[in-house]
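Box 4.2: Ligand-aware structure prediction
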Amino acid sequence: MALPLMSLVSDDSRYQKSFQLFLERSSEHQCMRDFIHSRLPDILASIGDGKSNLNVIGVGSGAGEIDLEMLSELHLKHPGVTVDNEVVEPSSQQLHNYKVLVSQKQDLDYLKFTWNKMTASEFEQHWKAKKMTKKADFIHMVQMLYYVKDPGATITFFHSLLNKNGKLLIILVSGESGWGKLWRTYREQLCNTEISQCVTTGDIKSFLDSKGVSYQSYELPSQLDITECFTEGDEKGELLLDFLTEVLDFSKTASPELKAGVLELLQHPSSSVKSNGRVIFNNNLGVIVLDQLC
Ligand SMILES: C[S@@+](CC[C@H](N)C(=O)[O-])C[C@H]1O[C@@H](n2cnc3c(N)ncnc32)[C@H](O)[C@@H]1O
């Protein structure tokens, strides 16, 4: 009999291992870097209103690779300006990795880090309990809204922290990606936990539209090589399957019907293309940028 499905995020060590493998097998960070160096500079140009210090909040920063790339573009756009950077990240392993990365970089003197080892909702509680009045010029949530109980409420809270001319940047998988197809088909089976939501930029746009909040959006083409997922018992294939389904030990705990259905969908032409004997999953991302509410 199939065991109850557990969320992958309940096991941080396996989650981080599978995320690392996902990064190795995908163009995820490369497509973000392309966006950061081509489009982000213009988005960041207007923030700060001429101040000599900017406040930044990174939510779900992971090991900080993408955060530091964004901060470097911010510095190029606003040279001579100091930056207070609040990092909100619940994984001690990832916070450690981020600190190591910072220690290896030079020319970060303009940055002051505050490390918050907590979830987005713990940060919200802490902020409210301390009656903080500080506002932020740039807030980003890169690939993290899947892990909050209520993505809409999380956006609303962080949006309310924006300063005049501030920007909130959200990156998630695109509604048009293979992930969107997977989650639309298996939402009931895969996404019914409190700590893992199958949310795409399509869902966030619907939420913002329903609230009458305007935004800019961008699509980032990206690919993920999932070939190993189709070799029974392949250790890396199983790790990737865990990441794709957000289920801990998916291959061992999912029912045979669910497993067969997911594997079929993953290689269906609506989710993947076959190229040189590899199965390449559509990992397209979406970016949403919100301005301060007037
Ligand atoms: C997919 S990773 C993305 C990391 C990084 N932003 C990147 O794109 O490389 C998701 C990150 O969100 C963190 N996370 C999980 N639950 C969270 C929560 N409730 N609030 C904030 N961050 C969370 C995880 O520890 C992980 O570092």
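In the box above, the bound molecule is S-adenosylmethionine. The mean pLDDT is 95.
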